[in-house]
Amino acid sequence: MRFLKWGEAAFDQELLGYVESFVKPGNTVWDIGANVGEFTIAAAHRAVNGRVLAVEADPVLAGLLQRSLNESRNSDLSVDLLCAAVADHGGIGRFRIAARGRAANALEGLEGSTQMGGARLCAFVALVTLDDLLVQSGDPAVVKIDVEGAEMLVLQGGKALLTKVRPLLVVEVSSTNRTEVAAQLQRADYALFDAETSISAGEIDVCAFNTLAVPREKLAVLFSSA
Q1: Cβ proximity of 184 and 152 under 8 Å
Q2: Alpha carbon distance 95, 50 (integer Å)
Q3: Distance CA 155, CA 150 (A)
Q4: Other CB atoms closer than 10 Å to residue 142's CB: what's the count?
Q5: Which H or E element spans position 48?
Q6: Is 60 exceeded by the pLDDT of residue 6?
Q7: Which of 16, 57, 123, 208 has a CA-to-CA distance to 144 between 20 and 30 Å?
Q8: CB-based contact 108:95 (threshold 8 Å)
């Protein structure tokens, strides 16, 4: 794939698979917890004539993503980058920078990943909600969420998104939140699937590590294109 600067093997194959399966030309796509932008950049290349909103709370990771966007092969992509954390309310929060690897960063007060290894520092971060983002961005067709234990906070701040816009969701769900996240999405009339298997394997009742959530009214279209 022409936009993978370091070769396809250097990138998360599951993320690339989600892009190939679910992102279509013209889509607006949100990447919540964008990290260094693997999903963001792949989605932007795929969503020709669409737009990607990348949200990343860590200014260092956001800076690396911006550098990737500045590369000549990516400079014409339609990507908006917001350095903020998504939660259940707007304002100011505190963000823990992981001692082991910045991909495990987490909002203060959340358990976070076992890969965190403690926090090297804790910094202030701007907080926004998914519904706040609707005011500034077009309605997304696909939303990817990878927020290291903050899944419930993110979804609780997206009531309008889930009830009115109803995008397809790809969510990494921590082991401590899987029952609660499943219940939240099922209340919004989403069907859940293990994103790492074929949808033909059937629905799941409790979230998998990587969960595909599909509005029930869109299931027929998804199955017809699978």
Answers
A1: yes
A2: 31
A3: 9
A4: 25
A5: none
A6: no
A7: 123
A8: yes
Q: Is 23-167 a CATH 3.40.50.150 domain? A: yes
Identify the residue whose tokens are 């358990």: 111
The pLDDT value given to residue 118: 59
Rounded mean pLDDT of 204-224?
A: 95
Q: Tell me which residue has tokens 């997304």.
A: 140
Q: What percent of the chain has pLDDT over 90?
A: 71
Q: For 164, list phi and psi in degrees, rounded to 5.
A: -110, -45
- The pLDDT assigned to 212 comes to 98
- Per-residue pLDDT, 142: 99
Q: What are the pLDDT digits (tens) for 91-132? A: 999 887 776 666 666 676 666 555 555 566 778 899 999 999
* pLDDT tens by residue, 133-169: 999 998 999 999 999 889 999 999 999 999 999 999 9
Domain-by-domain residue ranges, the chain?
Answer: 23-167
Taking the C-alpha atoms of residue 222 and residue 217, their distance in angstroms, rounded to an integer, is 10
Place of tokens 């701040």: 157
- Residue 103 CB-half CA count within 13 A: 7
